[in-house]
Amino acid sequence: MSQVMSHLLALTSARTDEELWSLHCDHMAIYGFDRLFYGFTRYRTSSSLGDPEDWVILSTQSPDYMETFLGEGLYTHAPMIRWALENNGACSWRLLEELVNTGMLTENERRVIAFNRKHDVTAGYTPSFRSVSDRTKGAIGLVAKPGMTQDEVEEVWAEHGDAITVANSVMHLKLLTLPYSGARPLTKRQIEVLQWVGDGKTTQDIAVLLELTPATVEKHLRLAREALGVETTAQAVLKAAFYNKMFVLEG
What CATH number should be reported for the domain whose range is 188-242? Predict the structure, then answer.
């Protein structure tokens, strides 16, 4: 079995998002991409990517890098993120050189590029995944190891680009089927009552099924709504389902 097929089989067999991410990062490092930055949102609008607490973010960048890039909002001006939001497929970071040469970058965009250069984030590729909804979008930044030039990245891509693209797509699709460990936490009881609501049960029904009082059921639903940052129970059911927190087999 080829190395690529072995990796794809391992990805599809992963049981947790941590296992999946570790496998994928190790495999991408073989091609020279030693720092990865994956992002996915289900709550994109024309003016926002949604609440950052609802994003799926996986990264092997340093905590200092992530604190500045996300915490100080640099991502909102990152040219490759803008490209990923507007396109599908894989884009070479050669685009950054072209943008710099045009002299048409904004001050904030130049600040992002300078910040990345400071952290040796200068060469790579960005695959952007096709979505079935305007509200969802996922992409991953494949950052070449320090000292690797964009010309060297292009040589790798010319030989292995299809395999790299397929591996990232499989990782992305598999991740969407797994409970996300970074999602807003819910207790076992909160998940249980949301599952019964998802099955069409009323508060009174759930109280009987779980041998609780209706008031206690309402309390668990309220706490679930608060934990998920939503206003209605219907929204809570939807968001919990999005992050695969409901009807999940254990073990």
Answer: 1.10.10.10
DSSP for 88-117, written as a single string? -EEEETHHHHHHHHHT---HHHHHHHHHHH
Cite the DSSP H helix spans in 77-187: 79-86, 94-102, 107-118, 150-175
Q: Is the pLDDT of residue 128 over 60?
A: yes
Task: Judge whether 90 and 125 are in contact, CB under 8 Å.
Answer: yes
Q: Angle at which helices 17-30 and 3-13 pack, to 10 degrees?
A: 160
What residue ranges of the chain are covered by domains with CATH 1.10.10.10? 188-242
Confirm if 56 and 180 have CB atoms less than 8 A apart. yes
CATH of 3-175, one of 3.30.450.80, 2.60.40.1180, 3.40.50.1390, 3.30.980.10: 3.30.450.80
pLDDT at 63 over 80: yes
Asked if residues 72 and 46 have their Cβ atoms less than 8 Å apart, the reply is no
